[in-house]
Amino acid sequence: MPLPRWLARFNLHVTNPILTPLARNLPGWGIVGHSGRKTHREYHTPVRFFRDGDRFIMALTYGPQSQWVRNVLAQGGCTLETQGRTLRLSHPRLLHDEERRAVPALIRPILAAINISDFLEFRGAQ
Asked: Where exactly are the structural domains of the chain?
């Protein structure tokens, strides 16, 4: 079960504005740029990601029904702003992995402790 929705709302209004400037510059952190499915408004969501070659993995701490995830899937990709570069990520795919093999071994126990086993995978960065 992902983290509770009330925490997502809190993060949206309190934590994200604080984290966003840091996420642009920290290794393994970035800002996902995506458009609303109905409003077509631009949104920017801070994320923690894991990279393996041209493969990018993001743990879905609030589950696959989060608005940003649904937007990215509908668009077929997103941008990822990280460490002064903007990458175009494409071919998003939802993964459910109880073993959490998609992320580094040191991260697996943390995600297991909060029962996170859903991920968004991207292939090919430009």
From this structure: 5-125
**What is the rounded (10 degree) CA torsion for 121, 28, 45, 88?**
-60
Residue with tokens 């990280």: 82
Neighbours of 53 (CB within 10 A): 8
Which residue, chain included where needed, has tokens 């998003």? 92
Whether the pTM exceeds 0.70: the reply is: yes
Measured CA to CA, the distance from residue 3 to residue 116 in angstroms comes to 8
Q: Which residue has the tokens 């996420």?
A: 23
> Which residue, 120, 68, 122, 67, is CA-closest to 96?
120
Mean pLDDT by 10 residues, the chain (126 residues): 65 67 87 94 93 93 92 96 94 96 95 95 78
What is the largest distance, in Å, between two alpha-carbon atoms of the chain?
39
For the domain covering 5-125, report its CATH number: 2.30.110.10
Compute CA 30 distance to the chain's CA centroid, rounded to the nearest angstrom. 9
CB 50 within 8 A of CB 56: yes
Kind of pairing between the strands at 55-59 and 77-82: unpaired
